Amino acid sequence: MLKNIDIKPQRKNSTEQCIHERSFQYKPYNNLKYLVVGILFGIVFVKAEVISWFRIQEMFRLQSFHMYGVIGSAVLVGMISVFIIKKFNIKTIHGEKIVFNSKKFNKGQIYGGLIFGLGWALTGACPGPLFAQIGTGATVISITLLSAVAGTWFYGFLRDKLPH
């Protein structure tokens, strides 16, 4: 999904480096805000039972609306956000224009979605809540995390040979 969003940086010189990479001096403690947001996001996931293996199994067995409601509300918020960004020509906090590029459908998306869904159903975890699951003490999910990283690397290695 994030591949569809293209933030057009202002170019400074012929090396095509973004102005913002050089103009801002970040201190290590500036990243603490991301840590705090990540921890809060994890707490929300835990409290909403989004990371529960049992909730995920209920979803795949069509026994409960809980996960469909969470996913559906996230899609709705995303749709409204994109509409607002386009309607009011909202820019990034650095004043850069946000451009949404059209994406062409291909059969690789079907295969990828099936593999992703199968992995999600078997492990009870998707990439978003992996760290929250590990944080709750389900350390066996570390294997799922390592597998996700390995799968991402493997896809990158084979990407040019795959049907796109």
UniProtKB/TrEMBL annotation:
<protein>
    <submittedName>
        <fullName>Uncharacterized protein</fullName>
    </submittedName>
</protein>
<feature type="transmembrane region" description="Helical">
    <location>
        <begin position="138"/>
        <end position="158"/>
    </location>
</feature>
<keyword id="KW-0472">Membrane</keyword>
<feature type="transmembrane region" description="Helical">
    <location>
        <begin position="66"/>
        <end position="85"/>
    </location>
</feature>
<feature type="transmembrane region" description="Helical">
    <location>
        <begin position="32"/>
        <end position="54"/>
    </location>
</feature>
<dbReference type="Pfam" id="PF04143">
    <property type="entry name" value="Sulf_transp"/>
</dbReference>
<keyword id="KW-1133">Transmembrane helix</keyword>
<dbReference type="InterPro" id="IPR007272">
    <property type="entry name" value="Sulf_transp_TsuA/YedE"/>
</dbReference>
<keyword id="KW-0812">Transmembrane</keyword>
<feature type="transmembrane region" description="Helical">
    <location>
        <begin position="110"/>
        <end position="132"/>
    </location>
</feature>
